[in-house]
Fold this sequence. Notes:
Chain A is of the alpha/beta class. Helices cover 36% and strands 20% of the residues of chain A. Chain A has helices at residues 14-23, 53-62, 80-100, 141-156, 178-183, 203-213, 232-238, 248-254, 280-286, 294-309; strands at residues 3-7, 27-32, 43-47, 66-69, 105-111, 161-167, 169-171, 187-191, 197-202, 220-224, 228-231, 242-246. Chain A is globular. The mean pLDDT of chain A is 94. In chain B, strands 1-7-6-2-5-3-4 form a seven-stranded mixed sheet, with helices on both faces.
Amino acid sequence: VSRIVVTGAAGSSGRVIVPHLADEGHRVIAVDRRAWPDCPPDAEFERADVLKRSFDEVLRHNRPELVVHLAMIHRFESSRSERHRVNFEGTARVIEASLEAGVRKLVFLSRATVYGALPDQAQFLTEDHPPAAGRMFAEMQDLVAADLYASGMLWRHPEIDIVILRLVSVLGPRSDSLLQRYLQQRRVFTVAGFDPIYQIIHEVDMARAVSAALQPGLRGIFNVTGPGEVPLHVLVERSGGLRVPLPEGLLRRLRGRLGFPRLPEGAVQFLKYPCTVDGRRFREATGFEPQCDLTAIIESVARSRREQHR
Amino acid sequence: VVPDWTVLLDRLVDEDLRDRVGRMDLRANELGFDRWGASPRDTMRALAIVRWFYRRYFRVQTHGIEHVPTGRVLLVANHSAQLAYDGLLIAAAMALDAEPPRHVRAMIERFFAQVPLVSILMTRMGQLTGTPRNAARLLADEDAAVLVFPEGHRGGGRVWRDRYKVLGYSQGFMRLALETRAPIVPVAFIGGEEMTASLSRMAPLARLFGTPYFPLSPTVLPLPLPVKVHVYFGEPLHFTGSCTDEDEAVQSRVDRVEVAVARLIERGLRERRGVFR
């Protein structure tokens, strides 16, 4: 049983991870700058902003052994400067404050998308591959920078065990990932002539992976994969979506108009090319095995869709 | 709106194809795809069409296909034919005439992954963008049969006066063989030069379209000429050494493969009775 501070606890990942860690018997201190009235009763909620001094006070007051850093903005609706402030400066602040407070371990939930989806890129990238998403997708620079900053601190500070988890796309009833929201649209637009494969993981397996990363002594950068790979068209059709392939030029021009989702230019890359990673290092280091298979994950998206569009 | 052509293709898939694809080293997950996005079902459908071209149109004859060992192997071939007709027919030979049938993974020029539809077709058939890491993973993890054309697009887009010449091999395939300890089977593809004879690579036009070359040839699309195709498989070559050896040390081994393929080509040209029969 450890004292764990979870940042960004009221976000969609936190809403799965906080109850999971509390169920495992840990004392969980959920931190978020937003209010979270639904915080599970077996966790404590502290309202604080990781960018402000109130967060240091939370650490000083609770003296946690572990910090799970989830306070990241993955959506693109927020302004670029806000995303940069929270994602990059926020991550740096959380690491700095954790070092000062003598935290033993910090788990940072990054994403496999930091590697980018590029036509000339190999598949099943290992952790040694440079995160190259910024080449075609400038809006992801802050996420890449945060990941790399944490990686650098990992080697500079042996006194804290930093674990960076680069997670594949998370799906599930509580998930609010970009892929989940993409799949839940009434009409799902794809790029005609392209059908990249995706790696997906169920939200509960995400929480189990975070829990596996807490084991003493584990430190480093790890890709976290789920039960396997699936082409985008199968993902769309099996989850009940109406797939509408459009030529790339048209899709780019219609972005953000006529009810089309407003996505940055670079996001189209992820509808054309695969971004797949090798999750072996994490599985070998922790014994982690995802429990939810591909069919079950897709079925959970289909259920969420039906509820949303009813 | 679009007719479901998969139903039509499924009618062409017979017991023999099902049996052969079933015995190939192509394992699909619960949703019907392998981890690279290849689909055994779609491979069957494609083979149903390719088989007609293989047997009737090009009347492909293989020589020494039994030389291809089981387990991981690098097939190294001369490149020609402007569009990957040679790769397609070599892969078809391994699927239709090898025993047991093998699923060939060709290392494809990166340009094609950026072409709509071509991108899907190649993925469904298990064909990948030719990066060294993809190939190493296929060989080391899956004991795959990987097909490479070390001449790259210089070979694919070659012009008539360069027919059946060795245009210089790059070293990547040899470093791959050394790293993964995979044997190399030299392959000669005879007929590719005549089926799509090209007079120029038309570099300015290629730049305009962003392609590696733009063949000046009347026979690339929709159909190449119905030449008689021969595919020669040489005996496997085994190499030892380190994949981090200096260029010179690797080059001498590359030269041995180059010579082996050139000899097979010579033999093929000597033995054939004509271009079309």
